Amino acid sequence: MLPSPNGSAIAAAATGSTVVAGCLRHAAAVGPARQGHGTAERPLAVIAAGERWPDGSLRPALEDLLGAGAIIDELVSHGAGPLSPEAAAARACFTGTPDVAAAVASCSSGLEPARSGFADDVAVATELDACAGVPVLADGAFHDGTGS
Protein backbone atom coordinates (compact mmCIF):
# COMPACT_ATOMS: atom_id res chain seq x y z
CA MET A 1 0.00 0.00 0.00
CA LEU A 2 1.46 3.32 -1.02
CA PRO A 3 1.35 6.14 1.54
CA SER A 4 -0.78 9.16 0.71
CA PRO A 5 1.48 11.70 -1.00
CA ASN A 6 -0.47 14.74 0.17
CA GLY A 7 -1.88 13.93 3.59
CA SER A 8 -5.22 12.82 2.25
CA ALA A 9 -5.73 10.67 5.34
CA ILE A 10 -5.95 7.37 3.53
CA ALA A 11 -6.40 4.25 5.55
CA ALA A 12 -6.90 0.97 3.79
CA ALA A 13 -9.04 -1.95 4.84
CA ALA A 14 -7.83 -5.09 3.10
CA THR A 15 -10.15 -8.09 3.07
CA GLY A 16 -8.64 -10.99 1.23
CA SER A 17 -7.86 -9.56 -2.19
CA THR A 18 -10.20 -6.55 -1.81
CA VAL A 19 -8.59 -3.22 -0.93
CA VAL A 20 -10.86 -0.43 0.27
CA ALA A 21 -9.60 3.12 0.81
CA GLY A 22 -11.07 4.95 3.74
CA CYS A 23 -10.57 8.21 5.54
CA LEU A 24 -12.29 10.52 7.98
CA ARG A 25 -14.58 11.74 5.19
CA HIS A 26 -16.24 8.35 4.68
CA ALA A 27 -15.41 6.20 7.68
CA ALA A 28 -19.10 5.53 8.36
CA ALA A 29 -19.56 4.17 4.83
CA VAL A 30 -16.67 1.71 5.13
CA GLY A 31 -17.99 -0.01 8.29
CA PRO A 32 -21.24 -1.30 6.78
CA ALA A 33 -19.50 -2.13 3.50
CA ARG A 34 -17.11 -4.42 5.34
CA GLN A 35 -19.76 -5.89 7.65
CA GLY A 36 -18.87 -9.44 8.57
CA HIS A 37 -15.15 -8.75 8.23
CA GLY A 38 -12.77 -8.02 11.06
CA THR A 39 -13.51 -11.18 13.01
CA ALA A 40 -11.32 -14.17 13.80
CA GLU A 41 -13.04 -16.04 10.96
CA ARG A 42 -12.76 -13.16 8.46
CA PRO A 43 -9.72 -11.09 9.45
CA LEU A 44 -9.20 -7.59 8.16
CA ALA A 45 -6.26 -5.16 8.20
CA VAL A 46 -6.69 -1.42 8.57
CA ILE A 47 -3.52 0.49 7.71
CA ALA A 48 -2.85 4.13 8.51
CA ALA A 49 -0.88 4.84 5.35
CA GLY A 50 1.16 7.89 6.39
CA GLU A 51 3.20 10.03 4.06
CA ARG A 52 6.80 10.23 2.87
CA TRP A 53 9.54 12.59 3.96
CA PRO A 54 11.58 14.13 1.11
CA ASP A 55 14.18 11.37 1.58
CA GLY A 56 11.49 8.72 0.98
CA SER A 57 11.26 7.48 4.57
CA LEU A 58 7.89 6.99 6.24
CA ARG A 59 6.32 10.05 7.83
CA PRO A 60 3.49 9.02 10.15
CA ALA A 61 0.53 11.39 9.85
CA LEU A 62 -2.00 12.11 12.61
CA GLU A 63 -4.88 12.38 10.12
CA ASP A 64 -4.13 8.89 8.84
CA LEU A 65 -4.08 7.44 12.36
CA LEU A 66 -7.36 9.20 13.18
CA GLY A 67 -8.89 8.03 9.89
CA ALA A 68 -7.88 4.44 10.66
CA GLY A 69 -9.32 4.81 14.15
CA ALA A 70 -12.60 6.15 12.76
CA ILE A 71 -12.88 3.20 10.37
CA ILE A 72 -12.06 0.72 13.14
CA ASP A 73 -14.68 2.35 15.37
CA GLU A 74 -17.26 1.90 12.59
CA LEU A 75 -16.20 -1.70 12.02
CA VAL A 76 -16.61 -2.44 15.74
CA SER A 77 -20.10 -0.93 15.66
CA HIS A 78 -20.87 -3.49 12.92
CA GLY A 79 -19.58 -6.48 14.87
CA ALA A 80 -15.83 -6.53 14.18
CA GLY A 81 -13.53 -7.81 16.89
CA PRO A 82 -11.60 -8.77 18.83
CA LEU A 83 -9.17 -5.96 18.03
CA SER A 84 -5.42 -6.25 17.94
CA PRO A 85 -3.60 -3.91 20.37
CA GLU A 86 -2.66 -1.71 17.40
CA ALA A 87 -6.26 -1.46 16.19
CA ALA A 88 -7.50 -0.74 19.71
CA ALA A 89 -4.90 2.04 20.06
CA ALA A 90 -5.92 3.64 16.74
CA ARG A 91 -9.58 3.46 17.76
CA ALA A 92 -8.78 4.98 21.16
CA CYS A 93 -6.87 7.78 19.46
CA PHE A 94 -9.93 8.61 17.37
CA THR A 95 -12.58 8.23 20.08
CA GLY A 96 -10.40 10.06 22.61
CA THR A 97 -9.82 13.10 20.39
CA PRO A 98 -12.59 15.59 21.22
CA ASP A 99 -12.04 17.78 18.14
CA VAL A 100 -10.49 15.80 15.30
CA ALA A 101 -10.49 18.76 12.87
CA ALA A 102 -8.69 21.01 15.36
CA ALA A 103 -6.14 18.28 16.17
CA VAL A 104 -5.30 17.77 12.50
CA ALA A 105 -5.24 21.51 11.75
CA SER A 106 -2.71 22.08 14.54
CA CYS A 107 -0.39 19.12 13.82
CA SER A 108 2.62 19.36 11.50
CA SER A 109 0.91 17.69 8.55
CA GLY A 110 -2.03 20.10 8.93
CA LEU A 111 0.03 23.24 9.46
CA GLU A 112 2.28 22.55 6.47
CA PRO A 113 -0.44 22.82 3.78
CA ALA A 114 -2.13 25.69 5.64
CA ARG A 115 1.10 27.68 5.50
CA SER A 116 1.21 27.05 1.75
CA GLY A 117 -2.32 28.40 1.22
CA PHE A 118 -4.20 25.10 1.43
CA ALA A 119 -5.98 25.46 4.79
CA ASP A 120 -9.29 24.75 3.05
CA ASP A 121 -7.94 21.37 1.92
CA VAL A 122 -7.17 20.48 5.53
CA ALA A 123 -10.70 21.47 6.57
CA VAL A 124 -12.23 19.36 3.78
CA ALA A 125 -10.03 16.35 4.66
CA THR A 126 -11.28 16.38 8.24
CA GLU A 127 -15.03 16.53 7.52
CA LEU A 128 -16.18 13.41 9.32
CA ASP A 129 -18.51 11.19 7.28
CA ALA A 130 -19.06 13.77 4.53
CA CYS A 131 -18.99 11.13 1.77
CA ALA A 132 -21.06 7.98 1.32
CA GLY A 133 -18.90 6.26 -1.33
CA VAL A 134 -16.52 3.39 -0.60
CA PRO A 135 -13.50 3.43 -2.93
CA VAL A 136 -12.47 -0.13 -3.86
CA LEU A 137 -9.21 -0.88 -5.68
CA ALA A 138 -9.82 -2.74 -8.95
CA ASP A 139 -7.59 -2.94 -11.99
CA GLY A 140 -5.05 -0.53 -10.49
CA ALA A 141 -7.53 2.27 -9.74
CA PHE A 142 -10.10 3.10 -7.07
CA HIS A 143 -13.77 2.86 -8.06
CA ASP A 144 -16.95 3.46 -6.07
CA GLY A 145 -17.69 0.14 -4.44
CA THR A 146 -20.65 1.24 -2.34
CA GLY A 147 -22.70 -1.77 -1.44
CA SER A 148 -20.01 -4.26 -2.31
N- to C-terminal separation?
Answer: 21 Å
How many strand segments? 7
In the CATH hierarchy, the third-tier topology is known as putative 2-phosphosulfolactate phosphatase
User: CATH top level?
Assistant: Alpha Beta
CATH superfamily: ComB-like
- The DSSP helix count reads 6
Radius of gyration: 15 Å
CATH architecture: Alpha-Beta Complex
Following the backbone from N to C, one meets helices and strands in this order, namely: EEHEEEHHHHHEE
Coarse structural class: alpha+beta
Across the major sheet, the strand order is 3-1-2-6-7
Helical content class: 25-40%
Biggest β-sheet description = 5 strands, antiparallel
Shape: globular
Beta-strand percent range: 15-25%
pLDDT under 50 segments (min length 5)?
1-11
Number of domains: 1
What's the mean pLDDT score? 83
Report on this model:
The structure is a single chain. The strands form two sheets. The chain has a five-stranded antiparallel β-sheet with strand order 3-1-2-6-7. The chain has a two-stranded antiparallel ribbon with strand order 4-5. It has a single domain, classed as Alpha-Beta Complex (putative 2-phosphosulfolactate phosphatase), CATH 3.90.1560.10. The protein is globular, with a radius of gyration of 15 Å. With 148 residues, the protein is α+β, with helices and mostly antiparallel strands. β1 (11-15) and β2 form a beta hairpin. The chain has six helices and seven strands, in the order ββαβββαααααββ. α5 (108-115) packs across α6 (119-125). It has helices at 27-33, 62-77, 85-95, 100-106, 108-115, 119-125; strands at 11-15, 18-22, 45-48, 51-52, 58-59, 135-138, 141-144.
